Amino acid sequence: APGLHFVATPIGSARDITLRALDILRAADVIAAEDTRTARKLMEIHGIPVNGRPMIPYHDHNGAEARPRVLGALEKGLSVAYVSEAGTPLVADPGYQLGRAAIDAGFPVFSAPGPSAALAALTVSGLASDRFMFVGFAPTQTGARAKWIKGLDAAGATIIAYESPKRVHRLLGELCEVLGDDREVAICRELTKRFEEVLRGTCGQVRDLLQDRVLKGEIVVVIGRAVARAPSALDLEAALLVALQTMPL
Ligand code: SAM
């Protein structure tokens, strides 16, 4: 159908792509991609020829120049498929401004949903999934991170963050410091790939586990929310005292 189609692509295993996503890539008049080589390779794996169709590179650094090209194609009533490097476009990937511009200009926008490392990690984390918050990549400066962690914790939700393997040890140390050694976490590495691994436990346990390990590959950190503490006898006594004092006689 004419319009902009955001197409989710695999986060590791090449076969993690939906049949509909392949249909859209096969039928689109124009392919726009964060990396056109990756897109070409993915299409090749699934036997989809480019057949001389225009391929527009669209990424963080050329959005302003590339957007008019995509919008121009939509203006002509063409269908454009957009794929990011991996997973779902817009999720810590380009696409937001493109979608916004298409919507503002009145063009139809569609999703071909599929893999995203955020949801894959939540699924295997063993942490509460009823309320969660995706926060993208952690900031890199140490000072900013303690504040960032505190802010996230206030949401009272399971937190899903992307982190570089170079900084994951440091992040765990900071999480333990700010949220306490007892907070539950899961480090989800190389999901859907050969060296897939999930490390679950309390912050302190996982930090110690990683102490003499070098982590490689792609990582999602999932952080459990603070567990509501059962009121202690002391709290109850204090509450009772307040109630008695304020009760009309
Ligand atoms: N759009 C993608 C998505 O929907 O998940 C995310 C793109 S973001 C630029 C790349 C980051 O996602 C990686 O640094 C890593 O934190 C996470 N990621 C991607 N693939 C992953 C995988 N197979 N296992 C674990 N984390 C992954």
TrEMBL record:
It holds the Pfam family TP_methylase. One of its GO terms (molecular function) is rRNA (cytosine-2'-O-)-methyltransferase activity. Its EC number is 2.1.1.198. Transmembrane segments: none annotated. It is found in: Cytoplasm. Belongs to the methyltransferase superfamily. RsmI family. Catalyzes the 2'-O-methylation of the ribose of cytidine 1402 (C1402) in 16S rRNA. This is Ribosomal RNA small subunit methyltransferase I. It comes from Gymnodinialimonas phycosphaerae. The gene is rsmI.
